Amino acid sequence: KLELREGRLYPSPMGSVEALRRMDLTNLVRQGYVAVRVASLTPAQRVGLRLPVHVLDADDKFDPTPGEGKEANFLLFENGKVKYAVANGFLFNVE
Known about the structure:
There is one protein chain. The chain is α/β, with parallel strands linked by helices. About 15% of the residues lie in helices and about 30% in strands. The protein contains three helices and seven strands, in the order E-E-H-H-E-H-E-E-E-E. The strands form two sheets. It has a four-stranded antiparallel β-sheet, with no helix packed on it. The chain has a three-stranded parallel β-sheet with strand order 2-3-4. It is globular, with a radius of gyration of 13 Å.
């Protein structure tokens, strides 16, 4: 049985998308993070990002509560461990 849980915003902003890509994002998600801020995020860099975390710029709001009409960013747990992450509506297997 899968259990839906809110994810958290990573506390430290990344300097760039490249720095974010170098991180172990699967491990980050396993720790409960579903969103990361990037200090120098351009609109062009946003397009086509398919990472297991939601990428935010400095001004973006983050609301972790899942709900109708909201961005889909949450975690699915099985037996107390993160099995899947949903980031920007895309499903990622993080086992």
